[in-house]
């Protein structure tokens, strides 16, 4: 791994985890026993605290919002960005408990997903740290709308991961942990069994192969892993973006991305860059559509 790749991965893995187990349990107790309205009111002082105390994340939010807005943001734009993130975290409590009555979820182009499921063949469901993946994940598992596994790093933010997993052990059991000897075997077995394998393509982990893409007009480092896995498994790829629209509203968008990712041996790096650039362009499209939904609070641009 090059020093540049190590630095990029270190940018987010080295960030301290902010939520303590006791604070998470308190919010969950309020959410469950007092109600979503009261819990959402608590998000305002909590968000203000993080805007004041999380200096590095605040700077990154400012830089990102400046790019997506095309002009310098004000402090309340950064507050709204943090609040949007906090709202989706709170909603995970209800989603993982199967309490869908709190939400109004709209699925766009869902026939793309249904056709893939009806074919009986698995595919990669490629998303990002954008809006809420948990809406789609809980719909698939608790409502049994579609068979889903998730390739997900659980080493970072362990407090919140353990806390959320405890709310729904069935959903926790769908996780495939990366960087283990049997990871690719488990992915292949899941795809062969007709599962949709969800993974996120906008964050580099330690040891990842990477590629450079243009993102909001500047070079940024993206992981090559999703494309390498898709090419290795010879399976279709479907993009998804779960937008939080405020209040109780979520919108999930599906897009056909590839029937089969083929990498030519003679220009493999260029092919990887081509596919990931396409992904980066779709991510940028949705970030412009819902700018407060992108939750990569670490220095992203090179």
Give a verbal description of the structure.
α2 packs antiparallel against α3 and α3 crosses α5 (75-96). The longest helix is centred in the N-terminal third of the chain and has 22 residues, at 75-96. The chain is of the alpha/beta class. The protein has helices spanning 3-13, 21-33, 36-53, 55-69, 75-96, 110-119, 134-142, 158-167, 169-172, 183-192, 225-233, 268-289, and strands at residues 104-108, 123-127, 148-151, 175-176, 196-200, 210-215, 218-223, 237-244, 249-258. It has one domain (3-293).
Residue share in helices?
40-55%
The helix-strand sequence is HHHHHEHEHEHHEHEEEHEEH
Largest sheet: 7 strands, mixed
How many structural units, i.e. domains?
1
How many β-strand stretches? 9
Q: In whole angstroms, how far apart are the ends? A: 16 Å
Strands ordered across the widest β-sheet: 1-9-8-2-5-3-4
Radius of gyration, in Å, reads 19 Å
What is the count of helical runs? Answer: 12
Give the helix/strand class.
alpha/beta
Sequence stretches where pLDDT stays below 50 over 5 or more residues: 1-7, 12-19
Strand content: 15-25%
3D shape: globular
Query: For the residues shown, what is the average pLDDT?
Result: 87
